[in-house]
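Hi both,

Apologies for the delay on this - the queue was longer than expected. I finally got the zinc ion-bound model through. Below you'll find the protein sequence and the ligand SMILES exactly as submitted, and right after that the structure tokens for the full complex including the ligand.
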Amino acid sequence: MAVPLRTCVACRRSTVKRELIRLVVARDSVQPDPSGSHPGRGAYVCGLARCIDIALKRDGAVIRRALRLGCQHVTLDTRRLGSQLGEMGDAQEQRRETSTSASLLGEIPGRAATRE
Ligand SMILES: [Zn+2]
């Protein structure tokens, strides 16, 4: 089964959904959707600080375009989103490190088994 890819609105890198943070319009404002299950159009951004910066530039112009907000009355609080996305990006980075060390640990019993 093909893994669905999503594109970061800032760097245009395509990657698996879980590596990106989803943004949606909820209650007339743009908000992060950590569960990734909120209905409606989503915009995706990497958890990287430079991508978050680009995404929020000019009052979040690239996010507005990705969500096709046009002239709809939707609040995009760049300062609040910036701190939320920053925290989520950090958490994502930690998860990535945790899964790497978990897979390294997983190799040890396997290696021991082949030696027996
Ligand atoms: Zn990016």
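Main takeaway for now: The first strand starts at residue 5 and ends at 7.

I'll put the files on the shared drive as well.

H.
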